[in-house]
Amino acid sequence: MSVLDDIKAQAAEALAKIPHLDSSSELEQLRLAILGKKGSLTAVLRGMGALSSDVRATVGKAANDLRAELEAAINDRAQKLAQAELDARVSAEVLDITLPGRRPIVGSQHLISRIIEEISDIFRGIGYQVVSGNEVETDYYNFTALNTPPDHPSRSLQDTFYVLDRSGDRAEVQGESDVVLRTQTSGVQVHVMELTRPPIYIIAPGRVYRRDAPDPSHLPQFTQIEGLVVDKNITFGDLKGTLDYFCKQIFGPERKTRFRPHFFPFTEPSAEVDVSCVCGGTGCRFCKNTGWLEILGCGMVDPNVFGFVDIDPEEYSGFAFGLGAERIAALKYGVADLRMLLEGDMRFLRQF
Ligand code: DAH
């Protein structure tokens, strides 16, 4: 076979293949095999020197023509493949702007934190300071200095979780601990009166612990907000006015309050405060059809308590109150069961 026939056959074979190559890399391989430095057509052109001059002219022209033809065919196919590959990529990587976006999860304040904030804001607005106390308290602050000596019967109602002192530093309490998870925030009153002199206008929110089984209206751990006012000429009228104002602020101006005599060791006289129910007494599971809901305890600071902190009851008088934050939240936001506040069910919590 003559050289010319050979290159024609090679070219024809390549031209037939080109339209069927499906990727740029296969096409490139073919180009290199024929037209590359070591390609078959390149080899033929290199070997031209060995041909006689008359044959060289014919073969050279034919080879150059074929080379041009092959290059054109390869370029043409390369363009088509590049376009097809681009199309495939575009449709594979397409950005579907009709998909709904992914919403970032935005947290919300827990209802207990929220009610603490709401109540604190109301009292800040009338000049109170918000202070905090310790959740672990000694028997002295939780009971004794609140006029509740060790043999006092009201202790047993609140007996709680005693924390064992294993340090051995305090020989007098070894074994029989006098450290408790506080049962009430009232101990903050004592700390504040030890550290500051009147006038005192404070509230103290915080967790308290009781040996209670949880039920819809009780939690073994809940939040109290303690209030204390000590100043000259403070009367029961100030107490009533302040708490009535508070109830109207938190529940709405149409609410009424009612003070019922009660006993607390650290206040005298003492009262429990009820707020009128939204149902107005017409029948509802919150107020059990009485029309009233108990929300807090309060009273005038007992002179014996002043005795523990060295404040002269002849010069100063004061009032104190303690309310349960979860109950206030439940009443305000219609929570049927206090346990829901601690269960962490997002469907419930997200509502607030
Ligand atoms: N500490 C009381 C309790 O847990 C609530 C209370 C009643 C607080 C009367 C007071 C008060 O400050 O004056 O039941």
Please characterize this protein's 3D structure.
The strands form two sheets. Strands 1-5-6-10-9-8-7 form a seven-stranded mixed sheet, sandwiched between helices. A three-stranded antiparallel sheet has the order 2-4-3. The protein is built from 13 helices and ten strands. The radius of gyration is 45 Å and the shape is rod-shaped. α1 packs parallel to α4, α2 (24-35) runs antiparallel to α4 and α5 crosses α11 (325-333). With 352 residues, it is an alpha+beta fold. A hairpin with a 2-residue loop joins β7 and β8. The mean pLDDT is 88. It binds 3,4-dihydroxyphenylalanine.
What are the salient characteristics of this protein?
three-stranded antiparallel beta sheet, 13 helices, 352 residues, 42% helix, alpha+beta, binds 3,4-dihydroxyphenylalanine
Summarize the topology.
Blueprint: H1 3-17, H2 24-35, H3 40-46, H4 53-92, H5 111-124, E1 129-130, E2 136-138, H6 139-142, H7 153-158, E3 162-163, E4 179-181, H8 187-195, E5 200-209, E6 221-231, H9 236-251, E7 257-264, E8 267-276, E9 292-301, H10 303-309, E10 317-324, H11 325-333, H12 340-343, H13 346-349
Parallel strand pairs: 1-5
Antiparallel strand pairs: 2-4, 3-4, 5-6, 6-10, 7-8, 8-9, 9-10
Bound molecules: 3,4-dihydroxyphenylalanine (DAH).
Residues 184, 186, 226, 264, 267, 270, 297-299, 320-322 line the site of 3,4-dihydroxyphenylalanine (DAH).
